[in-house]
Write a structure and sequence with these properties.
By secondary structure, this protein is of the alpha/beta class. The chain binds L-homoserine. The site of L-homoserine (HSE) has 11 residues, from α7.
Length: about 425
């Protein structure tokens, strides 16, 4: 017999929880009209039942105890929005074992503990909806898993952390200070509970882990993702990048090359004529290149209460429809079939931006370029600023394609030169041919 209504329990009433609840309550009638059956928010659990979330709740809806959701036989879908990999994991597994479907925005949990969770879900014939875990409002999970199923994916690259993009945008366009902008992003509800995840690239790495697994069929490989954040980016680098015709973005990149897959997150120079260089603020954008489609660019708000809440609700509705139709649980798309290996970072090849602090003396440039040449690194262009006889001046170069290992070992040697002061800054370049 068809269930008359689908009942939802939300655990975690923070930023995304509030967005989800607002949509479910405010759009209740709309959704019922579209679906032909009601989706009922039965309970919300959060330890904080006092703070206002900007919506008036029916009395008794918000409770403290998540067990009263997990143990409620009438609840069909548990929405886990507490985040983290501790209590969230227990709650998710408990829900699965009770035969409840789960919707989550928790990329950390899925990237780090996803093997156990997806296996448990398969065993218990329940769906894990995780659209909200990557790129907020952009339905990128569906795109890769469903819309592009007829393609072999060649590469994916994009901006998948709203907070870092917000910070870099404000630093680039307004010359703002890093710490001030981070505070703004936190106030706007974009940042993770621990914002170092945003600025050190960890949040992007969590999301990229999921995308790489969906795209290439590889096991979830969070520990193998090369992860570098934006804390080392200086206004000077932003200015030089601009002079060379580039912007600096925190990019998440995964591509297949032969029997290897690259999975990496790092600040990256993007040519100003690449659409991604104009993706600003909290917006995310992801290029997916399929063998049939070629490049496709997916764009939208990547964080925040309502955009992410929208993605959570889309998963709730998909699952509600499945339950009503009596269909089987949805395939997560996370498989472990492929024997592609994750490429070591030292083996990647790309072009580089190098910024040296060098004494402005005759012969310095030839020593630097000599070391680069002996490591098979060719220079494409160069800028030297200022004339300071005693102090160091910035010398900036763009290289031709080179191997990471060669760059690292050349810079080690260069940084030991007495005419070079401090550690040389290097950034990878991407997206020149899009
Ligand atoms: N902190 C994340 C971001 C939230 O800034 O993108 C959305 O996943």
């Amino acid at each position: 017999m068809k269930k008359t209504s689908i009942n939802i329990g939300v655990i975690g009433f923070g930023t995304v929880g509030a967005g989800t609840v607002k949509i479910l309550l405010r759009k209740r009638k709309d959704l019922e009209e579209k679906l032909g059956f009601p989706v009922v928010l039965k309970k919300i659990a959060d330890l904080d039942t006092k703070t206002s979330r900007g919506i008036k709740l029916p009395k008794g809806l918000l409770i403290k105890d998540s067990n009263s959701i997990l143990n409620d036989p009438e609840i069909d879908i548990v929405v886990e929005l507490i985040g983290g990999t501790g209590a969230a994991k227990d709650i998710t597994l408990k829900a699965i074992q009770s035969g409840k479907h789960v919707v989550t925005a928790n990329k950390a949990l899925l990237a780090e503990k996803g093997r156990e969770i997806f296996r448990a879900a398969e065993k218990n014939n329940v769906t894990i909806g995780f659209e909200a875990s990557v790129a907020g409002s952009i339905p990128i999970i569906k795109v890769i898993r469903e819309s592009l199923i007829g393609n072999s994916i060649k590469n994916i690259y994009g901006i998948i952390n709203g907070t870092a993009n917000y910070i870099l945008t404000k630093m680039t366009e307004e010359g703002a200070e890093f710490s001030d902008v981070l505070k703004e992003a936190q106030d706007l509800g974009y940042a993770e509970a621990d914002p170092t995840f945003d600025i050190e690239g960890v949040d992007s790495a969590h999301k990229l882990t999921l995308l790489a697994s969906l795209a290439f069929g590889i096991p979830l490989s969070f520990n193998k993702v090369y992860t570098e954040g934006i804390t080392g980016i200086t206004p000077l680098d932003i200015e030089f990048a601009s002079e060379f015709g580039y912007k600096i973005k925190l990019l998440a990149i995964t591509k297949q090359d032969g029997n290897e897959v690259e999975i990496r997150v790092h600040p990256t120079m993007i040519p100003k004529n690449n659409l991604i260089s104009d993706v600003n603020g909290v917006f995310n954008a992801i290029y997916v290149n399929g063998d049939a489609t070629g490049d496709g660019l997916y764009y939208g708000k990547g964080a925040g209460e309502m955009p992410t809440g929208s993605a959570v609700v889309s998963d709730i509705i998909d699952i509600a429809k499945l339950i009503r139709s009596g269909g089987k649980a949805q395939d997560s798309g996370i498989h472990e079939k492929s024997d592609l290996k994750v490429r070591k970072m030292e083996d990647i090849r790309t072009c580089y931006y190098l910024r040296f602090s060098a004494s402005d003396k005759p012969g310095v440039l030839s020593r630097i370029s000599g070391i680069l040449g002996s490591h098979n690194i060719g220079i494409e262009s160069m800028i030297q600023k200022g004339r300071e006889i005693k102090k160091a001046v910035p010398v900036v170069m763009m290289t031709h394609e080179a191997r990471e290992k060669d760059i690292v070992s050349a810079l080690k040697q260069i940084d030991r030169l007495s005419v070079v002061s401090g550690k040389t800054m290097y950034l990878r370049v991407e997206g020149s041919d899009s």
